[in-house]
Every structure is written in C-alpha cells, then in structure tokens.
Amino acid sequence: MEEFEREMAHLLEHPFAPHGGWLHWASRWGIDDFVAWSWVVIAGLVLFAALATRRWQLRPGRLQNLVEWIVESLNHFCRGVIGPHGDRYTSLIGSLFLYILLMNLIGLIPGFTSPTASLNMNLALAGVVFVAVQVIGIREQGLLNYLKHFAGEPLWMAPLMFPIHLIGEFAKPMSLALRLFGNIFGEDTIIVVLAMLSAFLLPRFLPIPFQFPLMLFALFTSFVQALIFSMLTAVYIALITEHAEEPH
Questions:
Q1: What predicted TM-score, i.e. pTM, was given to this entire model?
Q2: What residues make up the domain containing 207?
Q3: Shortest CA distance to 239 belongs to which of 164, 151, 102, 141?
C-alpha cells in the first residue's frame, strides 16, 4: 500500500511524465520516451507499407486487399469533406489519421506508451497541419490573394487584422492538439491508476483487472480522436481551397 501511495504521489507531482515503458532507457541518450515510441509507430507503418506493396498483383491477396480498402476509404473520406479534388490531400490526411490512430492505440499495450499523451508531440502535429494548410492556401489562391485574406477589409486595418488572422489560423490546429492530448493523457492516466489498484489492493490469487473496461472504451475513443483530428484538418483545407477549380 505504501508503494501504491508513492506511485500516486509521483504521478500527481509529475503529471506530464511518461508512465514508464520498455523504452525508458532511451532517455540516457537524450531521447524523450514519447519520441522513441513515435519512432516505433513510424517504423511499423513503413514496414507494413513495404510488405504490402512488395508484390503488387492484378489478383490481390488479403494484404493488398486491405491496403486498397484503406486507401479507397481515405480517398472517399477526403472527397466527402473537401470536395471532388479532395483525394489530392489523401496522403497528408491519411498519414495523419493512421499515425495518430496507432500512437493512440500503442499505449494500451502493457509496457508501451502513447506518444499522443505528450502535449509536445501533439503540438508538433499541429505545427505540421498549420504549415501544410498555409502552403496549400498559397498554392491554390496565389501569394497575393492569400495575403489579402490575412489583411482583411478595410485594407487600412491590415496592421491589426493580419496578426489576429495569423493567430486564428494557428489556433485551429492547436485546439486539435489540446483536445487530443487531454483525451489520450486522461485515459492513459486513469488506466495506469486502475492497474495499480488491481496490483496493490487485490489478493494475488484473485487478480481483477479494473482497467479492462476502460481499455475497451479506449479502443473506440482512440479511433474517434484520430478521426476528429483528421476530419478537422480536412475541413481547414476545404475552407482554404473552396474556390479551387474542380478537376475536369
């Protein structure tokens, strides 16, 4: 019981610290635990893509069918949110969705840590979305028209409106980062606390995983949070490309 109280005190004292995992040794080389696990997710995605596309066939096997279904579903999703030209941005939005989904889910495995339980990791994702949306907006509207959008009307108020609009543009993806962080960090923290209760309060011959129902719910919310982040990114792109010409 004393050990449980010490763990709880440490958790409350360092709420943004990782809960511990198999890659905690990476900190010896100055690598954050969350960053190390994000690299594991990246490596898994790269390996899956390499295996799935190694032998592309006219009569696809199960793995190729799965990849084609994922790509087609993401294309349909992007076209539904952005418009007929939405599949231009499937690579960005689809990568965000799969990356965030796996980072959410990996923390449910004992000994693993969800990278999205880190605010820094989510702010980095928000930064990617911010830069991507600005680049897309400049490409679709032209630099001059895009700057006019920031200047607003009337033009003499541009010195005031420009920084306000710029802050507003960055606030959109930042809100996604904060929402994602709050949900995943909160879930992971509660799961850790319930797992500690199971370990310290119950007889060893009758282990009852208190955290199991929440882990089942976390499977659903992990998907929902990845979907929300990706969907709102698609909405931001749709708003910035609403005047883009439809492909012939």
A1: 0.80
A2: 2-240
A3: 141
